Amino acid sequence: MRILTWLQATDYQIHIWNYFWAVKPMLELAEKFPDAEIFFFLAIMHSFNSVQDPIALRRNAINILKLYAACGADLSRFLIYNPAEIPGHAQLNWILTCITHMGFMERMHSYKEALDKWRAKEINVGVFCYPILMAADILLYDADIVPVGKDQKQHVEYARDIAMKFNNAFGETFKIPEPYIKPEVWLIMGIDGRKMSKSYNNYIWLLDDEKTILKRVKQIPTNTQTVEEPKNPDECNVYNICKLFLTPEEDEILRKRYQAWGLSYKEAKDQLYEKIIAFVRPIQEKYAKISDQEIIDLVEQNTKKVNELANKKIKEVYKKVGFSL
Question: What is the DSSP secondary structure assignment for residue 287, as one 8-state letter?
Fold first, then answer.
């Protein structure tokens, strides 16, 4: 079995939502399938759609990889590599682009959102073709499982559709990947009650200091219910974030406290703050011990290994489409 996922380099670090929908499911899958191959690529070419500062792009990539390692990714097992240095990704991207129709691509969420905002003429062509490059990234290595958040599910669906179209036209070539989504974390609310997102500035970074985290927790809006009144935990954003860090037993206790009387929102926020600090502190300590050069050397080493697999697949594809004479 081969499990494949990726990380973007559009920012310098990872927020809590990134951890729970992307990092944690990958770690759980690795534990569930101890014999599976773990392919973990740096989506630096995708990030170039929005980050075209070479210094920032390189800095972001290295730092996010350090954070993944600090979160528990086994660097001796996770095959972390850079597709930008593997020609097969761009080669397969072109072939898949040529068999994909415009109408199919116009159903892409980000493109439709741009149309709704009258911004279609402002997005670059790379944004429009992004799902095809992602399909190439996935299909090149015959991935079985692709863990994603709900927002990313469409990319796996595009990869599946494009793979089936290619297989029907040129013969069985690509494995059809399956998305893996944890329903309980497909949407994590930010401090303002909307989806936690960089664009909303409502997130908490894994590397935030205690003062910043306390400030962000205090900003979470609550309703006007008094301490004496029972409260619905599912309607409280403090609880919705806090439950991510709770054991089932702790969650049951907190829910009962909400539904009874005597719980103030200040107390709920204090508990959330303590849980977040207890969660990020060991990650920050591990992060501080990982050097940039350690990550750079690892990615270079793994990229060479993965390039051999990509070349083998590209030779098969080239022969089927007639590129090899």
Answer: H
Which residues of 72-136 form beta strands (DSSP E)? Answer: 79-81
- The HSE-up count of residue 298 (CA atoms within 13 Å, CB side) is 20
Active-site residue flag, 32? no
Q: Give the residue, 105 or 41, on which the prediction is more confident.
A: 41
Class level of CATH domain 208-286 = mainly alpha
Q: Is residue 195 flagged as an active site residue?
A: yes
Mean pLDDT of the chain: 90
Residue carrying the six token digits 């980000």 = 110
Q: Which of 24, 198, 286, 320 is catalytic?
A: 198
d(CA 293, CA 175): 35
Bigger pLDDT: 10 vs 142:
142
Is residue 40 helix, strand or coil?
strand
Q: Crossing angle for the helix pair 109-116 and 125-139, nearest 10 degrees? A: 170
Those residues with Cβ within 8 angstroms of residue 232's Cβ, 6 or more apart along the chain or in another chain: 258, 259
Its CATH architecture, for the domain 2-187+292-321, is 3-Layer(aba) Sandwich (3.40)
121 is catalytic: no
Do 43 and 8 touch, CB atoms closer than 8 A? yes
Mean per-residue pLDDT, 65-84:
92
pLDDT in the model for residue 12 = 87
For residue 141, pLDDT over 80 is answered with yes
Query: Against a cut of 0.70, is the pTM above it?
Result: yes
What is the pLDDT, as a whole number, of residue 81?
A: 95
Catalytic residue among 150, 153, 175, 195: 195
Question: What is the domain partition of the chain in residue ranges?
Answer: 2-187+292-321, 208-286
The tokens for 178 are 């399956």
275-289, pLDDT tens digit by residue?
A: 999 999 999 999 999
Sheet bearing 178-180, strands edge to edge: 79-81, 37-43, 2-8, 145-147, 178-180
User: Which two three-digit tokens encode residue 157?
Assistant: 């669906």
